[in-house]
């Protein structure tokens, strides 16, 4: 696999890396459903994304890692069109999300699935109705067909026995699996996960990772995963991008990331308290 990641010798500061730019594409030549170009986003005087560049390869699982508050969730919200960048380009399926009208943006959104941190299920609907919701809202399918699709996905995530339970009655892991089934129900080409492993014990995290790998092998697509869990990143990712202070500072295949000699990347991936990354 080609290596086109900016390398750093210890003489260079992060400002130097920023100025030079990190190459945004871990595997040039493959197609991308999602491209992020020079995206900047501030909330008030707080600059969150500060010129983010990143391409997500199709048919691969790309993990975005980075410290808390560095803009990872904000990035996902840009991809799904929930946030508009102050400047820069968010391109999904070859379309600049903010040069098309709301209706077209909605159409694009239907081709993306997102699993929010807590599953984001509707508390007043049982698991079955939660998973059926996107089909009922966005398609004209009849209930019999919806049932087939919903039960198929619930079977894949091991929840066929929990269909009548409400989110408040099931465990955190089950909520995430239900959220996963719901994210996949419209057959999306892009699937995003915001910290799918948060709040899960190590065994359930591992099972969820297996499920992500299995579903990706089965359905394909551009998977974007945000996580703090280094083991998850190592296990499921084809590529790893590291974001710091709103910019991409490393991007390559998983092996490269874990062998990186950039002090920040090394510190972050080893969870070391000594290094350029502090509490600020
Ligand atoms: N709608 C908003 N209004 C104001 N500030 C926001 C908004 N959304 C995010 N922020 C701020 O942007 C920064 C980045 O937030 P974001 O949620 O993307 O971080 P993150 O990298 O996902 O962190 P974590 O790993 O802790 O989830 C945070 O300081 C957050 O408070
Ligand atoms: Mg977040």
From TrEMBL:
GO terms for molecular function: ATP binding; ATP hydrolysis activity. InterPro entries: AAA+_ATPase, ABC_transporter-like_ATP-bd, ABC_transporter-like_CS, P-loop_NTPase. It comes from the Bacteria. Keywords: ATP-binding, Nucleotide-binding, Transport. It holds the Pfam family ABC_tran. Residues 34-270 form the ABC transporter domain. The keyword Cell wall biogenesis/degradation does not apply. This is ABC transporter ATP-binding protein. It comes from Nocardioides cavernaquae.
């Amino acid at each position: 696999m080609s290596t086109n990641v900016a390398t750093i010798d210890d003489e260079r500061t992060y400002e130097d890396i920023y100025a030079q730019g990190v190459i945004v594409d871990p595997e040039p030549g493959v197609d991308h459903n999602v491209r992020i170009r020079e995206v900047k986003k501030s909330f008030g005087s707080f600059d969150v994304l500060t010129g983010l560049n990143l391409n997500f390869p199709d048919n691969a699982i790309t993990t975005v890692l980075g410290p808390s508050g560095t803009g990872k969730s904000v990035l996902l919200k840009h991809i799904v069109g929930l946030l508009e960048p102050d400047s820069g380009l968010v391109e999904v399926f070859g379309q600049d999300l903010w040069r098309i009208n709301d209706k077209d943006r909605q159409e694009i959104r239907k081709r993306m699935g997102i699993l929010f941190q807590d599953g984001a299920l509707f508390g007043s609907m049982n698991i079955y109705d939660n998973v059926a919701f996107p089909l009922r809202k966005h398609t004209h399918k009849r209930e019999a067909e919806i049932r087939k699709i919903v039960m198929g996905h619930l079977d894949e995530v091991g929840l066929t026995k929990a269909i009548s339970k409400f989110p408040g009655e099931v465990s955190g892991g089950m909520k995430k699996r239900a959220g996963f089934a719901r994210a996949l129900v419209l057959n999306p080409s892009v699937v995003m996960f915001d910290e799918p492993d948060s709040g899960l014990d190590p065994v359930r995290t591992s099972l969820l990772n297996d499920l992500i790998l299995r579903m990706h092998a089965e359905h394909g697509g551009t998977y974007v995963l945000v996580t703090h869990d280094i083991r998850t990143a190592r296990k499921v990712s084809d590529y790893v991008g590291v974001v710091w202070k709103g910019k991409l500072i490393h991007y390559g295949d998983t092996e490269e990331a874990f062998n990186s000699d950039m002090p920040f990347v090394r510190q972050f991936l080893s969870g070391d308290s000594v290094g350029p990354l502090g509490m600020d």
